[in-house]
Structure formats: C-alpha cells, structure tokens
Predict the structure of Methyltransferase domain-containing protein.
Amino acid sequence: MNSMNTNYSIRDEIRDFWSERAATFDQSVGHEIFSEAERKGWQRLIRKHLGEGQGRAALDLACGTAVISHLMNDAGFKVTGLDWSDAMLARARAKAKKRGTDIRFVSGDAENTMEPRDSYDTITNRHLVWTLVDPASAFKEWFAVLKPGGKVLILDGNMGKETWVKGLQKLWTEITGKPAASHMSPEMMARHQKIRSRVHFANEMPAEAVVDLLREAGFTDIVVDRKLGDIHWAQARKMPFLRGLERMVQDRFAICARKPG
C-alpha cells in the first residue's frame, strides 16, 4: 500500500467490513435493541438533547440497519438514513418497510455526504466517529449540512481505553485458554483491529478530543453527557457476564453540539 491510495484503501476496507457484518449486525446487543428498557433509555436521551421531532429534518449518518433512524422517527423527526454499505441499506429498507415507516435511505459517505447545504435540523450518528479517517473534515461537512441553529448528536465512546474489566478478561483467557465471549469471529476481530490501527482515533478516543475537533469546525454549546447508565444496564443484562460488566465500566458518551444561527 502506498501513500497515494492509503485513504481510499482504508475507506474501502471499512465499507467492505461493515457490509459483511450486515447479515448478523442486528443479532448483537449494542447494535439492535433487545428490551423496552433500552428503547426507553435511547428515547429519553434523544429527547433530552434534541427535543421532539415535530417533523424536523434529521440525517442519521452511518445508519446501518436503521436502529437510530427508527428511534428518531419515533420521536417525530423526518429521517434520512445515510450509509455507504449497500448490504446495510438493504436491511434498513426491509426493516422500514416491515415497520411501515417513511424513512428515506440514501447511499453515501459520512465524511462527504453530498447532501444539500443548510438542509437538516439535526444530525445523529452512533459508533461512527472512531471509524473516520479525517474527522476534522467530516465535522466541517456536518456543520455545512446543518441549518443554522441545528444540532449534531454523537453517540460513541472511548472504546480503546483500558479498563479493569479488560484486564480481568485477559486473565480469564490465560487461565482457561478460552477467549472472552465476543460477537465477532477471530478473523473478523483481526480485521476490526487492522482497520482501527489506521483511522484517526487509532488508540483512545476521549470525548475531549472529539469536542476540540467540533469546536474547530465551528460548533458551539457543546455538551458531553455520560449519564447513559439506564441504556448500559439494559444492554448488560442481555450480555455474557464479563461483556456486560465491561459495558457498565466503559467510557461511553453522548456529545451534542450546535451550529450557531
């Protein structure tokens, strides 16, 4: 791989990876929603930062199978889901048809959406920022797509941060010879780590680093919200013990920021 095509190759690999994950994506806790308690937690968080939709235009970036898109639709937003994996979009469209929702889905790159400028009241995304090759440029793109006064809501976390539970998982593997339970095969996990090693947030992704890039892009009134315990507890109850414990201690957060106007 040479420097002329490094970015393209990373982006291409990311798209292919998530396209392959599409078939089993909704089987994983933390992707699809498996309890009413978790659903209510997400709905609370969305309304806390974005209010009621009231027909306002929302762009859900890297929408995957449309889990967040449907939560936004339930809150009354007019939702467009964007993803560059055709496999994910196929499942998102099938899910929307089954549920009878009018969510619009488009194929596109979250770092260069090609959506009209000043056209959305809010932008949402979950577990996207860590995959960005150039988050500074992506945030500028999101700033441009938002209407003046519009908000972005980022749902993510500092997954690369070491926790005492990760240490416990490693010890368990050493003692038993069995890896900790995972929703990915060893081959897919290796590909995941290879991708992670080449994106902007290759190691840790502290909320403060994301905030700095949002501020550089022009966003104001930036709020970091770590009060997600109801969501994480609901997810942890559906996971194997060590994975559930890890979910409870991870530094996961929501970041809400506004475009002045």
